[in-house]
Amino acid sequence: MTDKPKILYVSHNHPTIRPGGAEAYAYELYRAVRDGGEFEPLFLARTGPPVSISSRYHEGTLLTGVNEDPNQYFFYTDTLEYDWLNGTPRGKTALIKYLREFLQAQRPDVVHLQHTLFFGYDMLREMRNTLGDEVPILYTLHEFLPICHRNGQLVRTTTEKPCREESPRRCHECFPEVSPQEFFMRKRFIQSHMSLVDRFIAPSSFLRDRYVDWGLPADKVFTEEYGRLPVTPAETRDRRKRNRLVFIGQLSYFKGVNVLLEAMKRLQDDEVDVHLSVYGANLELQPDEFRSEFAELLEATKETVDFEGEFNHDDLPTIMADADWVVVPSVWWENSPLVIQEAGQHRRPVIASDIGGMAEKVHDGVSGLHFRAADPASLAETISKAIGTRKLWDELQARIEPPYEMDEHVRSLTRHYKELLASRSEEELVTPPAPATEIESVRYA
Amino acid sequence: MPEAELERMPATTDTALEPLATLLAADVVAVHLDPEDGAPALEISILDRPAAEEMRSQCVDLRTFLRERLTPLASDERLEAMALLDEVAAAEPAPEDQVGLSASRALVREALRDPLPPSLLDRDEPQGMHFDSVLALAEDAFYVRGWARDGQAPLQRLTVVSPEGSRVELLPGIYREPRPDVHSFFEEPTRTGAEGTGFLGYCETRSPSLLSTGWILEMENALGVAREFPGPQVTRDLLGARTSILNDLHKESGWETPLMDHVVPAVSRIQQRLEERAAIEEVWEFGEPAANPEASIVVPLYGRIDFLEHQLAQFVHDPELRESDLIYVLDSPELATALKASAGQLFELYGVPFRVVVLAQNGGYSVANNRGASLARGRRLLLLNSDVLPAVPGWLGRMSAFYEDQDSIGALGPKLLFEDDTLQHAGIKFQRPPGGGAWENEHYFKGLHRDLPAANMTRRVPAVSGACLMIDRELFEDLDGLRGMYVQGDYEDTDLCLRLRERGRETWYLPEVELYHLEGQSYALETRTAMSRYNVWLHTRLWDSEIEAAMAETA
Questions:
Q1: Are A71 and A42 in contact (CB under 8 A)?
Q2: Under a CB-based contact definition with an 8 Å cutoff, are residues B249 and B259 in contact?
Q3: What is the pLDDT of residue A389?
Q4: Which chain A residue is nearest to residue B388, measuring alpha carbons?
């Protein structure tokens, strides 16, 4: 035990169970704070179905240990009775008994949530109940789950186009079986709990703006990019042509891999000398329609595309060394895609969709190139332009900014923690403003 | 029969009865035929409990007795004997074995009655009839339907006879309707209006009738030709009966129809019984109740118990709500187990104290509110729907303060919003549809934006919505709460405002307080339409002139 103040990090998953961007970052943050921060970190990672097949291990508790680290715990929650619309467990025992006991035993001085998924948004209420108002609560917003019932994708079910405005009416259009009234109640419910957070951390300005539009108070949401642990940049091979592309990401509709394959088909038809490697997992979890389209496109582009399947993160330098360009063709907004940061660390220019977090993190014509999102023709054209002139690649690469270092990130977050500890602000409510109209008093009689 | 004596016979003195002169039927009815001066005197008694063994041994069985001793009586004497029995059964407190009494009475009826010639369904028969249905509304209240056609002479008498022998004359009050199906069978033009061949309506028997079979319909024309027809099995499902009766209103197009003279008492009896069944079964208390609550908030929960969680997640931000007396009334008793588990956990999470009142049966909107109000501790009542969420904290105090300041206020309603910030409620006015008809409730400015200047004037209005309505508790009690005669959550609120108006109390609309009313999630739409026709007609039937006056004030 140390006499440093304790900070509790909560994640919806642990990278030792299944890799994933947000949980990998959360865990790296935990380790960075442990190794060099001014706080003693605790890491509470949710486990249970559908992410983990393991059931709860011990009778009478939801906790299990993680790799003999006294500061890490798994917290088991069931999802059979989880209300996916409102993001809350129907039974509250996990919160009002087990989470409460954990908080009482650990008494963190600061809580920094990375997620409330599988716990329930009302875990915030329980934290306030048990820890009181003195303990600051921070919440890093990794995606748009509180705003969008479609797994936070902000892509409309009606058109598969990115959604630009959320409202009970529009959400009901995407989910006809859920009434506008229920969507309104969902929003009020989630906001009721999120109002207990002292500061939100948004890894991109785009994401911050969406949450402020949605109703979070602007002065509570801070933009703060993910910090990256330092890596040795991949070797930059001296090649005559810069025509090797790589896609790294989930093989899903939203990540736009099929848009990229469509573009490759066009380039192949035009006999453009180009090559693409596709790395990614979770194809088996995708809908049949997507999978058969993906398979057809792979077959049609077999001369120029290699499908490499799942990859080990340790192989990233090798993968990057083989590539000139990293393509991020997502058809949803994204937040701050890790793959863009990784491309930056390995000094590879990025060809990205011109929307959301991608447009924000990749500067068109400066450190990378944009194309019209979801448009294979635009992507094919952009790739042609990219590989056409060797000089362009050199120029873009030279202007890639060094990634945001984890150490600096930890220092910045520490400032947040200390500020909040120093002055505990009054909690404010997330509620619509009162009507501006003047109220007159008139008798009709 | 020269004389009949009524006597309530104490079971302890049973032995005083003469052998063979006494009849015990199902141990409940005792008929004592006492030959005196050669003429029989009839005594009918209802016993409190099974007869003593000694008395039993002295008795013969009912059928034998009836056959041997009562058959010699003249026809009119037998009718009189039946009427006498009916009178006794009506006057006496109900015995323990009510069904036994009914069974005995049915036997007596069959022994004493002169059956009429049966009605045959034949084109060549001038008389034809059918007894379609008997809906039991209470032990002595029924809703009957059928038809009777006489091609020979005008109908003089149309009588239903209960299995127990209670006779109810339907003419002239019964509602008559055309039966084109009948007349097409008899190949003649359809009779309409008061001549209608079909009949339906409400009737009461003198004494309780419990048996499901044995009803009879009798008809007799001006020439004395009489026929009878056996009745159908009695329907006892109250909710089914209510739906069936309300559907009869489709036969008519206006609220002034005489059919309402039958539907209103029938439905009222059903509502009354449903109300009796919806007694408070349990009260659960969560948390320390506020010491001196200014207001009691009564929230009926029907079907959607998840609304509790949504409301608590908003109320938790409002210190005033912790100081109030929050009462949830579970009007879906089948959800009691689920609610009990969840309510305790939700209290643990939110810490807002509340009570849950569980009703034994579903009682409907008004009953649920009244039951909740009966336990209220606050000076004022705030009736609140479970699908109402406050826009911002502080709403309850602002309503209370306004109520306090108005001398002759009765009811107070705030601005209610839809989820898209348009107006769900800015007070209620009454409006007749084009061409006249029943007054309908109209929410002012429904669907317009919350900032509409006209909707932001604090003012008197004819009525306000019960979705969020404040009223002084004593005043509410003086009025006996909401009236349960309306069916399922419609028009009780305006009825309350009109009753307040009758007492010189005003109804006010307070737009500075805003709540969201996410209406229409609890009930299926079809169910509402079927019932709203009845409610709107009943409402106008009760309030036509008062509404007229209220609306004249707004002009």
A1: yes
A2: yes
A3: 83
A4: A185
Percent residues over pLDDT 90 in chain B: 65
Residue B537 backbone zone (phi > 0: left; psi -120 to 50: alpha; other: beta): alpha
- The strand order across the sheet containing A6-11 reads A63-66, A69-76, A40-47, A6-11, A110-113, A137-140, A199-202, A221-223
Of the candidates A129, A181, A183, the beta carbon closest to that of B351 is on: A129
Lowest-confidence pick of A134-148, A255-269, A420-434, B124-138: A420-434
The pLDDT of A363-369, averaged and rounded, is 95
Among A425-429, B123-127, B180-184, where is mean pLDDT lowest?
A: A425-429
Q: What is the pLDDT of residues B275-287, one digit of tens each?
A: 999 999 999 999 9
**E-state strands within B47-164:** 127-138, 141-150, 155-161
Note the pLDDT tens digit of each residue in B242-269. Answer: 999 999 998 888 899 999 999 999 999 9
Q: What is the CA radius of gyration of chain A?
A: 23
Which of A188, A426, A442 would you mutate first to test chain B, the one with the most B CBs within 10 A? A188
User: What is the tens place of the pLDDT at every residue in B346-365?
Assistant: 999 999 999 999 999 998 89
Q: Which amino acid is at B24?
A: L
Neighbours of A426 (CB within 10 A): 5
Chain B residues within 8 Å of chain A (Cβ atoms) = 309-310, 313-314, 316-317, 341-342, 345-346, 348-351, 387, 389, 391-393, 419-421, 450-453, 456-461, 511-512, 514, 516, 518-521, 553-554
Model confidence over B292-330: pLDDT tens digits? 899 999 999 999 999 999 999 999 999 999 999 999 999
φ, ψ dihedrals at A155, nearest 5°: -125, 130
pTM listed for this prediction: 0.87
Please tell me the predicted confidence (pLDDT) of residue A426: 45
Distance (Å, whole) CA A384 – CA A388 = 6
In chain A, % of residues over pLDDT 90: 80
Q: Write the residue in A96, A181, A444 that is nearest to B459 by C-beta.
A: A444
Point out which residues pair with B25 in neighbouring strands.
B29
Residues of B in Cβ contact (< 8 Å) with A195: 317
The model's confidence at residue B75, banded by pLDDT at 50, 70 and 90, is confident
Q: How close does chain A come to B475, measured CA to CA in Å?
A: 23
CB contact under 8 A, A439 and B345: no
Contact B519 A181 (CB under 8 A): yes
**CA nearest neighbour of B130 among B200, B46, B217:** B217
Q: Torsion-angle region of residue A235: left (phi > 0), alpha (psi -120 to 50) or beta? A: beta
- The mean per-residue pLDDT over the stretch A305-311 comes to 93
Let me know the angle formed at the C-alpha of B17 by B14 and B21, rounded to the nearest 5 degrees.
140
Nearest neighbour of B419 by CB, restricted to A93, A181, A437: A181
**Residue A278 half-sphere exposure, CB side, CA atoms within 13 Å?**
26
Residues of A in contact with B391 (CB under 8 A): 431-432, 434
**Interface list for chain A against chain B, based on CB atoms closer than 8 Å:** 88, 90-93, 95-96, 122, 125-126, 129, 167-169, 179-185, 188-189, 192-193, 195, 429, 431-432, 434-445
Chain length of chain B: 555
Q: What is the pLDDT of residues B469-521, one digit of tens each?
A: 999 999 999 999 999 999 876 799 999 999 999 999 999 999 999 999 998 65
Distance of alpha carbon A55 from its chain centroid, rounded? 26
Residue-level length of chain A: 445
In 3D, which of A114, A118, A121 has the Cα closest to residue A51? A118
Q: Which residues contact A402 (CB under 8 A, 6 or more apart)?
A: A344
pLDDT at site A36: 83
Q: Cα(B182)–Cα(B307) distance, rounded to whole angstroms?
A: 52
